[in-house]
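Q: Okay, next protein. This is MOSC domain-containing protein from Actinoplanes couchii. I've checked the sequence twice, so it should be correct. Can you predict the 3D structure?
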Amino acid sequence: MSDVTGAVVAVSRNDAYTFTKPNRDAIVLVAGLGVEGDIHAGVTVRHRSRVAADPSQPNLRQVHLIQAELFDEVAGKGYEVPAGGLGENVTTRGIDLLSLPRGTILRFGTPTESTPTESASGDSASGDSASGDSVRGEAALVVGARGEVGLGARAEGEAAQNTTRPGTGGRGEARQGVDAPGEATRAGCAPGEAGAGAGAGAAAVSGRGETARTVSAPAEAVDAPGALDAVGVGVALAGVLEAATGAVLDAATGRAAAAVVGAVGRETGSGDGRAAVVVAGLRNPCAQINGFRPGLLKEVLGRDRGGETVRKAGVMGVVLRGGVVRPGDPVAVELPPGVREPLERV
């Protein structure tokens, strides 16, 4: 938990593909989907460049947030950018969004007490199976040697069990620590981004039968049947995580998906009913920004002294808990436990 707090300056949405989004009196976050009535809401990617590259990719860009301090900064250089001007859904103040670690949870509104969400079957979202049996331990997003991603579970002291699905071809077999045969494909990415197998850190493409590598994330409980149930995820986020298991993800997207799994595990049984978004990564600024304000792109996309890419056009997240968000709402920052890793583009 962190004592860092900020506030919502503006909220915006649009049901059509436009670069800017009009301000609203309020928006409604829908768990696992995004902003109700917004063109970018959905389980799989909705941004047009991503859809064109690979429409099966999971939508880890459901909500776009930008800190108002960026608009103050560029205003000093002659660029007038209103809230919603860069297409963000939530404009904040008082939080350095860009410095947040992957998997940070942002909670909107005044703290409230609630009980764990119940599924249609009456089971709580704490991860207990219908039979009441559960295996406490570690949930994992399993990435095969060919880039396949599956949701698996590792009980205390046991090897990871995983179900990996190749992006193209193959049988999608369930194995223990071994990827199913199949071929990797380039992950969907915007122009200028590296996909799987096309850059340092991308999932390796190699021969059949190689041991899968596992990106682990803590979970409250792990159920026996089914990969999704095994991670103890709530019904609401099952769709986007199922999309992650069915697509070939590049390395950065795989890490972002694993962070979402970790946030789901931490959220289980938390009792906090506020609307919440888990931060998955950075927006990758595109040339459309120069169409909005000529020359503005260079202010939000550049390189640091070490030659590393710097992206300043906000962060992208997945809705963890639904609810109404309004201008003036407080925003609480909940940092992930353990090693805190910097945001990458998603």
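A: Here is a summary of the prediction. Residues 137-267 form one domain. The chain has seven helices and 18 strands.
Q: Noted. On to the next one.
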